[in-house]
Amino acid sequence: MSELYSMRPIAHIRSDFSTKFGVPRQSGLVDSLEATVVFEPEFRNPDALRGLEGFSHIWLVWVFSASVRRTWSPTVRPPRLGGNTRMGVFATRSPFRPNPIGLSSVRLAGIASTPDLGTVLRVQGADLMDGTPILDIKPYLPYGDCHPEASGGFAAAPAGAVLAVDIPPALLAQIPENRREALMGVLAQDPRPHYQKDSDRVYGFGFAGLEVRFTVTDGLLTVREILPEER
């Protein structure tokens, strides 16, 4: 018997990424990235967050809203394997799933009360584009959620910073000071699709209301332009 379940977002995230391009491929890779969880009006009761301040990390359960498809495939091409090798969808964290649900562990940087949005959560290390709907929030429990002895299959080790990054001072000055470290971390992760390694191509993505354009040659990412983002 097939059962269907109806779910509604309890919140949406506000992040510096206007599109999927540039978003880190896993949560926690760039801890300096900050985002805000803004609850829908009916869920802005501060009592719903009572006790959450005692946790350092939380789980976000969310929807791959930019990757919803009517059909699904039993195999996908993980970027971690260069985008050329197929693996079972349930052995990956690909957004192209039977149910487009994402799961991210993020640092809870603070809980703030605002006059227009009610109580919001400040989080660090999120891998979500701006506007992503959040279905649920759960506390991270170190004794149950952390398994140091676990094996990680073909993604056993974090990708880490793979590129050196050069941003000319005049361009870096265009980035808000509180966003510079995060941008450097994002660029060092190599935001390009794994199947695109063209040293002559200029890539670009939206970040903090700006479009960051760059090239990559011999392991060095060089920012070429920073322009106001068109929306």
List the helices and strands and how they pair.
Layout: E1 11-14, E2 34-39, E3 57-63, E4 75-76, E5 87-88, E6 101-114, E7 118-124, E8 133-139, H1 142-145, E9 164-166, H2 169-172, H3 180-188, E10 203-207, E11 210-217, E12 220-228
Parallel strand pairs: 9-12
Antiparallel strand pairs: 1-2, 1-8, 2-7, 3-6, 3-8, 4-5, 6-7, 10-11, 11-12
Descriptive notes:
With 231 residues, this protein is mainly β. It folds into 2 domains: 11-154, Elongation Factor Tu (Ef-tu), domain 3, CATH 2.40.30.70; 160-228, RelE-like (YaeB-like fold, 2-Layer Sandwich). The chain contains 3 helices and 12 strands, in the order ββββββββαβααβββ. It has helices at 142-145, 169-172, 180-188, and strands at 11-14, 34-39, 57-63, 75-76, 87-88, 101-114, 118-124, 133-139, 164-166, 203-207, 210-217, 220-228. The strands form 3 sheets. The chain has a 6-stranded antiparallel beta barrel. The chain has a 4-stranded mixed sheet with strand order 9-12-11-10, covered by helices on one side. Strands 4-5 form a two-stranded antiparallel ribbon. The mean pLDDT is 91.
Number of domains: 2
CATH-level-4 superfamily name of the largest domain: YaeB-like
Q: What is the CATH C level class of the largest domain, in words?
A: Mainly Beta
Sheet-strand content, in percent, reads: 25-35%
Q: What's the arrangement of strands in the largest beta sheet?
A: 1-2-7-6-3-8
Gross geometry: globular
Label the CATH architecture of the largest domain. Answer: Beta Barrel
Count the E strands.
12
Mean pLDDT: 91
Radius of gyration: 19 Å
The separation of the N and C termini measures 44 Å
Biggest sheet, open or closed, and with what strands and sense? 6 strands, antiparallel, barrel
Structural class: mainly beta
Percentage of residues in helical conformation: under 10%
Indicate the low-confidence ranges by residue numbers.
none
CATH topology of the largest domain, what is it called?
Elongation Factor Tu (Ef-tu), domain 3
How many separate helices? 3
